[in-house]
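User: Can you write out an input/output pair for a complex, sequences first and structure second?

Assistant: Here is one pair. Inputs:
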Amino acid sequence: MAEHLNPTACVLVVGNEVLSGRTQDANIQFLALRLGEIGIPLREVRIIPDVAETIITTVNEVRARFDHVFTTGGIGPTHDDITSECIAAAFGVPWEPHPDAWERMASYYSRTSGGIAEFNTARQRMATMPRGAILIDNEISIAPGFTLGNVHVMAGVPRIMRAMFESLAPRLRGGPPIVSAAVHAPGLPEGKIAGGLAAIQTRYPELDLGSYPYYRAAGNGVAIVAKGTDEQAVAAAIAEVTTLMSSLGGQPMQGEPPS
Amino acid sequence: MAEHLNPTACVLVVGNEVLSGRTQDANIQFLALRLGEIGIPLREVRIIPDVAETIITTVNEVRARFDHVFTTGGIGPTHDDITSECIAAAFGVPWEPHPDAWERMASYYSRTSGGIAEFNTARQRMATMPRGAILIDNEISIAPGFTLGNVHVMAGVPRIMRAMFESLAPRLRGGPPIVSAAVHAPGLPEGKIAGGLAAIQTRYPELDLGSYPYYRAAGNGVAIVAKGTDEQAVAAAIAEVTTLMSSLGGQPMQGEPPS
């Protein structure tokens, strides 16, 4: 495997709505790409329900196994938003009003009071956090996420999650960025290229060579993606794959197939 | 929690391409919806890399914890397709030519021989399976998936995965279908409804009540979804939420908000 010198990431999606199929997750791909760019490759994703015992057990398992854990979802004001208190339970610390978050939210809601927005018990839950939490601000909503240890707790709403991640990113120390390159060959079946491709993979053990057949209205084929932290090795491997494709009668084209 | 009498499902997505962000997963939502319909609610999803040790360990962990495990990806002909041999290792059985799959694929490729398709070593891997595997046919591709114990091994390409799932579904014994209903209120903030909603959840412990704020060009609001196996209870809970929304000055509308 590549990237053995990079810190690793796990994403934990907390949400019955993804497990029921109501919602198509829209956060995993964003986080996968951004984490690769900053050199903290995503190594595992888990999607789990809004069940306290499951959240607590899973958080403790993955925070021990990965350098960083990013959670999305479950930090709103309603009864099914239990991520924050579960993080406190997982770390064995009190769940209590966070002074800065509380002051900020109380002030925000007092300015808009008289209208629909009161700093009620439900909203106060969004200013209640595990002791020691470091806030993750965002430009979209008043309610912050937070970091506790190596666990980064973010909203599930994609535009809020993205704003939180960009606010958090400068605090994360990554390794070398993961770079990738691709070549594809229209009409060439995956089963024909497999033997030669395996030989190339053996010569580049520090890279991941992925083989992805594609099926498009314009025609089928196979795309090969090389991925790793060594940009020169990535380019050299793709050059070898290109030669292999040509030798098998393919007409390789650099990059991913047009979508 | 609802559905405690239903068998449970876990989906295992095997694929570096999802973890790198190259590919947006297109299988989880389909499986979540179909599994709910046949009464085998999806309880957890894991997305893991094409690493043998990780696949073997994870398969053994989740097949012990859930009634059914559905894997997608990693059963093609190339060096990065290692799901099938890892399932054999996880179960501690030989990985060997499957007589039916082998005969079918050898026959298919002999008919198309002389062209680009030869039943070579790489393609023979797709007819090699854990001993005891029961084939999962599909109408799209010649290569079958398989079931071993409570683990169902399917392709990653969405249209092939879907065909495999529909071929497999009649063999699965589910519980009562999971039904759901929704109501939404434009302009009503989640933080205002939270208290009353928690009280309704308490009266319907057998249901899951989910609260989902939405942000659309046409306006923001909150959608409440009730989910469970008791259709009457689902309807009654949504009626109570509707009354709650009205009492808070909202104008509730049945169903999900228009997308």
